[in-house]
Design a protein that fits this description.
The chain is 11% helix and 39% strand. It is mostly beta strands. A hairpin with a 4-residue loop joins strand 6 and strand 7.
Length: 339
């Protein structure tokens, strides 16, 4: 049965695109990277996700940080998933996966493979030492469960900023400080390692462009490994903050889309109130405009997800909305564990 890999981030460059000439040619880098790939590839896991609500399956990649199965990946790889499984490239084993926590704004998630032990771990480098022109390779899962993909290229720019739109929730975030690589990175490679010529992980692949291509391939972006590991350490501490959510997301049960604001009524238009979800039980229906949560005004899908990320199952929220008849209403909703 054919799998359907997909990526939930639609990428638009936040700055004007200009061709950056590599200091060292990427073609000459291909041969030395064979040993670099061999050093890291056993520590890669191929991630499969299932979203029951959307009847969708997804593919992504992760990096094993310790032998007991801690895995670093992108949040968007596992976002919304009802079932997450991971296949170890190094051992051939498959594991059920738990979400330890995430930072949505920086697109980083930490996973735990259930029952894992003795897994190969990734040699980690220092992203602060990365230079334009360095050879690099992105290892991923664009084949959706087939052989790992190896996208060879070179570093073309540092400290890049992109706007990432999340097609699942309608929110959008600005990812900053990224490493740019001239290589044909594809959906499914997200969450995989960006590897330098010494066989060390220097970044976590997070996105590929959809509107620009280098000849002969495309280009991708990676979160510097120093930044990603710092976030992973915050998640490990199990101490939540405004940016770090510990455990799976909470569920309010509403579907919204970016730009779904009514010019006449501040708030976010509810495209769908999930049947049986907390919002629907509180009385919201499709077409209502959610205006505030606990007195905090909503002016975008981003504001909605930011509030929800600071809450946990069992929290009771005060919702205020305008119904389809133009009447203001309010009710309480008790959050439940979400995917």
């Amino acid at each position: 049965m054919a799998r359907l890999p997909f990526c939930r981030l639609l990428i638009a460059l936040a700055t004007a695109v200009a061709l950056v000439v590599p200091v060292r040619p990427a073609i000459a880098a291909a041969a030395p990277l064979d040993s670099a790939i061999a050093a890291v590839e056993p520590a890669v896991v191929q991630i499969d996700t299932t979203i029951d609500y959307q009847h969708a399956v997804g593919a992504g990649t992760g990096i094993v940080l310790n032998p007991n199965g801690e895995v670093l990946t992108n949040f968007h790889v596992i976002q919304g998933a009802d079932v997450i499984t991971a296949h170890s490239v190094g051992t051939g084993q498959s594991f059920a996966v738990d979400l330890v926590g995430y930072n949505r704004t920086n697109d980083v998630a930490l996973l735990q493979l259930r029952g894992a032990g003795g897994l190969p771990t990734a040699p980690l480098g220092n992203s602060a030492s990365v230079a334009i022109g360095d050879p690099a390779v992105a290892i991923g899962n664009a084949n959706a469960g087939g052989d790992p993909t190896q996208e060879v290229g070179s570093i073309t720019s540092l400290d890049r900023t992109i706007d990432a739109k999340d097609a699942l929730t309608g929110s959008s975030d600005q990812l900053t400080g990224l490493i740019e690589i001239a290589a044909p990175v594809r959906a499914g490679d997200s969450g995989g390692p960006l590897v330098n010529g010494a066989g060390q992980v220097i970044g976590v692949i997070t996105a590929a462009t959809v509107n620009y291509r280098f000849a002969p391939g495309g280009k991708g972006f990676a979160i510097p490994i120093n930044q990603a590991l710092g976030i992973a350490d915050q998640i490990r501490s199990r101490v939540p903050s405004d940016t770090v959510h510990v455990g799976p997301p909470t569920l309010l049960g509403v579907g919204v889309a970016a730009g779904d604001q009514n010019a006449d009524v501040p708030g976010v238009i509810i495209r769908e109130a999930l049947r049986g979800g907390p919002a629907a039980q509180a009385g919201l229906v499709d077409g209502d405009v959610l205006t505030s949560i606990d007195g905090q005004s909503l002016d975008s899908a981003n504001a909605l997800t930011a509030i929800l990320d600071r809450h946990y199952p069992g929290d009771v929220l005060n919702l205020t909305w305008i119904d389809r008849n133009g009447q203001q209403r309010s009710a309480k909703a008790t959050l439940t564990p979400g995917s």
